[in-house]
Amino acid sequence: MVEYNEQAVDEWDRKVAVMFIGNKGVGKSTLLSQLGGNFKSGFSFMEGITKDASEQEVNIGGQPTILIDVPGLYDTTEKGTRINSKKLTEALNLGYHYKLFFVLAGNSRGISDEDLVLMFRVNEAISDAMGSKVEFWLIVNRIHGEKELQEYERHLTPESFQKDLFQIATAFGTHPVDIRIRGIVLLRYDEKAVENRGFYHRLLPCVMAQIPVRLKVKQISASVGDISLIKKIVITLSSLGLLTTIVLLAVL
Ligand SMILES: Nc1nc2c(ncn2[C@@H]2O[C@H](COP(=O)(O)OP(=O)(O)OP(=O)(O)O)[C@@H](O)[C@H]2O)c(=O)[nH]1
Ligand SMILES: [Mg+2]
């Protein structure tokens, strides 16, 4: 008689889901559509375009894969931000094996405060519930021009990102950094690439390489106040950095 281990069968049955997490307008829906989905995208100054989480099943590298599109996290209002946090948390708790990506938009200052605090809040919710490292890929989308691209190539590494996030986590409170960045994809702003799914070949290897994880995530506790708080922290940290440099120079 063959005995089935119900839990093992359940694990086997779980589908793989790709999820792009980021703030509004960074290009999450556009990039998921490049992977074969058909998600609504567009430009909207105040409100995000994607209002609810939605799923579409596609075939990636011969494997049926669920693409999950979610709203951007931070909204201009407290209520909107709370609703988005809830929807994002629910989407992370659907029970799939998740391949996780952070998407951020190219910015002349590297990683924006809004993107950094989003990653901190997601880290916090994951740390509370998982107690182990969870790997993400980082996609920097809409990089404008060769110079900006070179700046990213030169300065942004998984280690530099890890350091930034650790500083923010320390300044915000006590949370350990349980997010690990496996790799970084840099995508230049490109009208044609968006029209003809030209980013597919850049995204596919990362999706294939990413190891799916099972998640149990606590409620993400984002609030609009985070943005002004992080601005203060970043200013304090950079002035502390300046202070250290001045002290070091004085000692030398
Ligand atoms: N030309 C060009 N447009 C892009 C690129 N990436 C994103 N876009 C455009 O940027 C706008 C915002 O993209 P979305 O995919 O809707 O962004 P989102 O992150 O899903 O935004 P929300 O749903 O509001 O959270 C759309 O008009 C896209 O067509 C790019 O690399 N090149
Ligand atoms: Mg969207």
Q: What is the string of helix and strand elements?
A: HEHEEHEHEHHEHHEH
Give the CATH H-level superfamily.
P-loop containing nucleotide triphosphate hydrolases
Enumerate the spans where pLDDT stays under 50 for 5 or more consecutive residues: none
Percent helix range: 40-55%
Global shape: globular
CATH fold-level name: Rossmann fold
Distance between the termini: 77 Å
The CATH C-level name is Alpha Beta
Query: What count of helical segments does DSSP give?
Result: 9
Rg (C-alpha, Å):
19 Å
Main pleated-sheet profile: 7 strands, mixed
What number of structural domains do the residues give? Answer: 1
The amount of beta strand, in percent, is 15-25%
- The CATH architecture assignment turns out to be 3-Layer(aba) Sandwich
What ions, cofactors and ligands are bound?
Answer: guanosine-5'-triphosphate, magnesium ion
Provide mean pLDDT, rounded.
88
Question: What is the number of E strands?
Answer: 7
Structural class comes to alpha/beta
Can you walk me through this structure?
GO terms for molecular function: GTP binding. This protein is of the alpha/beta class and 252 residues long. It has one domain: Rossmann fold (3-Layer(aba) Sandwich), CATH 3.40.50. It is 46% helix and 21% strand. It is built from 9 helices and 7 strands; from the N terminus they run αβαββαβαβααβααβα. Strands 1, 2, 3, 4, 5, 6 and 7 form a 7-stranded mixed β-sheet that branches. Helix 4 links the parallel strand 4 and strand 5. Helix 4 crosses helix 6 and helix 6 packs across helix 9. The structure holds guanosine-5'-triphosphate and magnesium ion (MG). Magnesium ion binds next to helix 2.
